[in-house]
Amino acid sequence: MAVKVVGQNHLTIVYAYIIYEFSLFYQAMTSDNKLKAELFQIQTDSPGWLLWELTHLWKRKLEDNLAQFDLTAFQLMLLRGLMHLAAKEKKSTTQVDLANLLRSNKMMTSNVLRTLETKGLIKRETHPTDTRAKVLVLTSAGITLGNQAIKELQKLNKEFFGDNSQDFTQVIKKLIIKNQEN
Fold first, then answer.
1. Hey, what CATH class is 71-149 in?
2. Which of 11, 14, 138, 154 is most solvent-facing, going by the fewest CB within 10 Å?
């Protein structure tokens, strides 16, 4: 089955596979609501199921490692994205710019940025020409904590993915490109 990504987030492909897997599960039910075991067994070996399981294992380990910094995985991704844009861009970075870079929901991005602001890791200032937009500025505490947490993320990636990380990364990139919205 070819899956076309319809959302803004790379994990959308995972969710599409899960929906597909559950549709197969539903089809495996007989009229008397008894499961056909051989069909269910096949599903646990499917790429979508395995990707779902791997994603959750990695995220759980990441969240455990980030607890020492009082950060969630998404908070770190926002800090990392903001650090990337601050180093790359010459213009002010807005919440929308960051949400677009990370392909994340704009409302969720705004809510989590508010948390980072409360923690003193970023400042949200009014845009000089668009009063509806917020310009994001990293604080020195945000840069320091972000760098520390990114080092922990890199360490986790090496431990979790091991020697196969480059091959695995290439497979993931190919799948993303193949399934991205045009």
1. mainly alpha
2. 154
